[in-house]
Fold each of these.
Amino acid sequence: MLLDVQEIKEYLPQRYPFLLVDRVVEMDVGKSIVAYKNVTNNEPFFEGHFPHEPIMPGVLIIEACAQAAGVLGFKSQGKKPKDGYLYYFVGADGVRLRRPVVPGDQLRMEVNIITNRRGIYKFSARASVGDELVGTMTIICAERQVEVD
C-alpha cells in the first residue's frame, strides 16, 4: 500500500462521511493512480438509497473517482490542501455505469491523467469490483488557490 487513509487525508480536504478513498495501492506520479473504497453496510447513504436494497449512488461512484483523481493531481504537483490549493470537481463526460455497488464490495478506481492545461485536469477513470466493470468516465477538475487559516 502506498497511502493509507491518514496519508490520504493530507491530500484530500473531504472527511467522513464524504471521504471516499480508503487507500492508494499504486501511483505513477504525473500519470496514474489505483485506489480503493471499501463499501460497508453502515455507509450513511444506504439508509435512504435504498433501505431494503442498498446500492451506492452513482454520483458517489463518480465522486470517489474524482477524489482519487484529486490525490493524483496533488501528488503530481507536489501540493497539498494545507498549502492553499484545492481541486474542484467541475465535470464528468461519457459516464457509463454498468453494475451496482453494494455493501461488502471493494470499489477499485483506476485513474489516468489525460491532460493538464493551466490547472484544468482531465482524467480517464475506470471503476470496478473484482473483475466486473462498474463504470467508466472522464473526470474534469480545476486546481484553485484558496486562503488557508
Amino acid sequence: MENFRNSFLISMPHLTDTFFEKTVLYICDHNPQGAMGVVVNRPLASGKVAVVLQSLGLDEATKLSEIMEVYYGGPVQPTLGFVLHSSDYSLEDTEEISSRISLSTNIQIFQDIQNDAGPRQFRFALGYAGWGAGQLEREISNGDWLVVPADPEFIFETPDRSKWTEAARQFGIEVSQISGFGGSA
C-alpha cells in the first residue's frame, strides 16, 4: 500500500459535488484502516470567524478573528476544529505529520496564537475529510484525485482562490484540461 500521508490531493474536474469541487486536501494520516485529510483552500465567510471562535469558548474571539480565518476542512464532524500549522510549535497532543507540518486540536493553541506564542504559520479548519479502508485508493484509481507531494509554503502562502490550479501547475499539469473519466473504443 502506498502511503499518501503528507501529500496533496487535487480534485479532478469531474468532481462537482459541493464538498470537493476544485478542492486541495492535505493528507494528515493514511494507514490500512483509512485516511484523514484537511481541505486547505476553502475559507468560510469572514463574518463567521468571530461566531465560530466564540462558540469554542474563546474569550478574546474578536481579537483572534482579526488575525485568523476559519476554513472548511471537510464534511466529517464539521463542528470539530483542527489547526494545521508549522512545526515550530507543539503541544503535548500535537501530531507531527512531517518535519515541517503539524496538526493540533488543543484549544490552548488559540490562546498562544493570540499571545504571539503560537506557530509562525497556521490554518484553522472545521471538519475533515475521511476515508475507510481502501476507499481513498479506489478513488485515486478511479481518477477522482491527483496526488502530489505536499509543500508547506503552498498551504500557508498561496492565495486560496488559485490553489486548485496552482497545485497541479507546479507539477506541469493543467488540471482544467484533464478528465478523470476513462473511455473505451
Amino acid sequence: MEAKIAEKIILGVDPGTRVLGYGLIGVTGNQLRLIQYGVLRLEKLPSHELKLKRIFERISGIIEDYLPDEMAIEAQFYGVNVQSMLKLGRAQGVAMAAALSREISIVEYLPKKVKQSVTGNGNATKDQVAYMLEHLFSQKLEKQFLDATDALAVAVCHHMHGKTKALTGNNSKKKGWSAFVSENSDRVKKS
C-alpha cells in the first residue's frame, strides 16, 4: 500500500486598499492545483478604517474556509507618494495579522521576485504573469481578476522559492530560474 502524500495549501495575497487579490494553491509533491482566487473590492467603503476591517474579515474568512498552511504576501516597494505607501502597508499588516492570529507562517516577496519566478522576467506585465499561470494550471483565468492572478503568482513564487532551496542546497553553484527549470523539467511545459 502506497502512503498518501499530504497536500499543502498556500494562500497568496496581493494587498491593496482599492482592490486586494487573493489566491489559493494546493501542492502535492511536485503537482500544483488551483483551489480558488478572487478579489476584494474596497473602493466604495467610505473610510480607510472600514477598508482595514473588511480586509481582516475577508482574509480571516478565507483562512477558516480553506485552512492554508502558509501565507505568501507581496511586499511593498518604494513609492513616491508616502500616504499611499502608508495605507498599503496598513493593508498588508492587517492581512498578515489575520494569518498570525491563526498561527500561519508568512513570507513576503518583492514584486520583481514574484514576476521573475513565474515568467522569468522581473519586469513582466500583469497580463504576462496571468498568461504563464494559465499554462501552469492548464486552465483559463478571468482577466478581470488581475489582482487575483498576481496573488496566485505570489503563492506559486513561494512554492518555487522553497522548492529551489530544497533542491539546490547550500553547496550548489546553480541559482535562480535556470536552476529551477533544469532541476524541475517535469514541471515546466514546453511549447
Amino acid sequence: MAYELETRRALLRNITLDDAQEYYDQIWSQPDVMRYLPGGAPRVREQTETYINYFSNHWATHGFGLWGVVIKETSKFVGHCGIQIIQETQEIEVAYAFGKDYWGQGLGSETAHASLRFGFEELGLERIIAIAVPENMASRRIMEKNGMKYQGEKRMVGFDLSYYVLMRHEFVPNNEPYLLRKL
C-alpha cells in the first residue's frame, strides 16, 4: 500500500526517478547538507537513482518509508522525510533531509511530526527512534520539539550518533493539518 501525506505547507509523496535531478541538487550534491548524512560528503549524480530505487523498494517491502517533500505553494521538491528501518539494527527511525534554502523554517518539525503520527497511528508502531550527527543541533531540536527523548550517543551505521526515542504512549499529536491518502 502506498500513501501520500499532506501537512500545512508540504505534500509528502513517493520519490520517483523524475525527481532525481532536483533531489540531487537539493540534497546529494550539497556539502552543507551532506556533512550531516552518512558518509558526510556529496555523492555523484548516479547514486541519486540508487537511493530512489532503495526508497521505492523499502516502501514495497515494508509499506512505509521515506517520502519526497514538495512545497505545496510552489510545487518545489525540497528533500525527504518519513520513517524507515535501519538495516543494521532493525529499529525504525524518523529521518529527514532538506535543501539548505529550506533550513530554519520549521519544515523539518512539521514533516517529522506528521511522519511520527503516521507511524504511531496508521502503522501502530510502539517505538520510533531518531539519530543525528551530534553537532547537528538543528536536527536534534526537531527531535526534541516532537517529544523525542535523548538517550545518549550510540554507535550506528558506522558513526557515533545522538540517539533519541519516542514511544507511542508518549506521542502527542498537534493541531496542525494532517491529511493521509491511501493510494
